[in-house]
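Example 3.
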Amino acid sequence: MSALAALPESGEEKPLLHVSKLSHWYGERLGCRDVSFDVYPGEVVAIVGESGSGKTTLLNCLAGRLRPTAGVVEYLMRDGRARNVLSLTEAERRFLARTDWGFVHQNPSDGLRMTVSAGANVGERLMAIGDRHYGTIRETALDWLGRVEIASDRIDDEPRAFSGGMRQRLQIARNLVTRPRLVFMDEPTGGLDVSVQARLLDLLRSLVTDLGLAAIIVTHDLAVARLLSHRMLVMKNGVVVEQGLTDRLLDDPRHAYTQLLVSSILQV
Amino acid sequence: MPTRIVVSGLAKSFVMHLQGGVELPVVSNVDFSVESGECVVLGGPSGAGKSSILKMVYGNYGADGGQILIRDGDRLVDVAAAAPRRIIRLRESTIGYVSQFLRVVPRVSALDVVAEPLVARGVDRDTARARAGAMLDRLNVPRRLFDLPPATFSGGEQQRVNVARGFVTDHPILLLDEPTASLDAGNRSVVVSLIAEKKAAGVAMLGIFHDEEVRSAVADRIVDVAAFRIAA
C-alpha cells in the first residue's frame, strides 16, 4: 500500500502537465518514444526503469532542458492557461524554471553554486523573482535551511564544505524556496548512504505532502517510488511499458518487464 | 441500510511472464454485496482467492473483468475501471484497509504513523495525535513507544500499530485483512469490540479471518469464495 498521504480533494481539474506522443532521438539512437501521460496538481509520478531505459532523457525533455524530436508538453501556467513548453521563448522558459519549477539533480554540484555560501544559494532564487530586501532574503534562507535540517550556523559556509547528504538537502531548499508547483527530480537519493537516504526520503515525503507539490521523480529504486509516488511509469528501451497506481504496479505487475523488476528487489 | 459495496462478475487471473507466461486463474463470476453496518467475511480454504478479492476491492490488484461498485458520498465509483487518481481519492474519503503488515517509513514515530490517515482526511494534527494515542492505548501499545519509529518494534507491536492506523479513521468502508492474526487473546478481543463499534456506527466491513472464534464473533454473513473458484 502507498505510504504517501492521499491527494487533496478537487473536482474535474485540469492537468498541470500534459505530455503527448513525446519522442526523442539522438540521431539514429532512440532516447524515448511516444510517451503520453498527465500530471495533476499535488500528484507525484515516478519514472522507473534500469539505466539506459530513457528515464533521464524523458525528464530533460519535460523540463525543457532537451528539445524533443516530436510531441507536445503543455504546462498549466499560473494564469490558468495551458502553454506548450516547447514554444516558449528561452527567456520565458528560464523564468518558469526559476520560479514555478524546480529541478533536483542527482549530483548536487550540478544544481548548486559550489563557491557561494549556502545562504546565497537559497537566496539567489528569491532574488530571481524580484526579492531585493537583504534582511528578508536572509531570514527566508535561514528558515529553509532549518526545514531541510541544516544548522543555522552553516549559512555562510560554501557547499564545498558540506557532506553529500547536506548538499542534497541544500539543493532541495534552493529549489523549494520559491514555492514551485512542479519539481523534477533525477535520482535524488542516488549515491547517498542508506541512512542518509532515509533522512532525505522522509524529508522529501513530508515537504511534498505539506506543500502540495506535484513532482516527477526519476529513480531506479522501486522502494523510493513506493514511498514517494502516487503513480508510476515503467520504462524499457525508451518506451513506457506499463503505467498506473504505484502500489498496483508493484503488487500486481502485469508486463513481463515490470514483473522482472519487482522480482529482482532484494529483501532485507 | 444503504448498500456500500456491490461486486458483480469479478474475475482475476495472474499471468506469470517469468514462468513462460503460465496463467494462474484465481476467481471468476464473483458476486456479493455489503450493506452499511454489516461485516461480511470471505470464507474458503487457503489459496481460494480471498485475499485477491479484498485487494481488488481496494484497487491494489487489477481486475480482469466485472465491476466493483463503491458508494462514495452520493456517487458510485467502479474501482475495477477507475483512474489511479480516483482510487487514491476513494482511499482517502471512503475505503480504509486494515492489515497486519506495517510498511515502515523511516523516522516517522508510531503516533504519527497512526495519526497520518486522519491528517490526510483533514483532521488537525493535535486532534489526530490525540485520537491516535487513544487508539494505541486501547491496543496496549506502551506509551514509551509512541514517539519512536516502529522499525525497531517487535512483530506484535508493529502489527498493533498498523491495526490502530486502520481503525482510527471514520471511513464508511473498512477492508479487514486478517487484522487479528497472531494477536494475543486480549488484543484479539479489543479488535472484536472495535469491529462491533464500527458496525454500530454504520461502517460496511469486508474481511478475512482465519481465527474461528473471531470470525463467528464478527461475521454477519460468510461469502464462500470457493464457489467462485475457476476449475483449473
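Residues 3 and 227 of chain A are 6 Å apart (CA to CA). Confidence is low (pLDDT under 50) at residues 1-10 of chain A.
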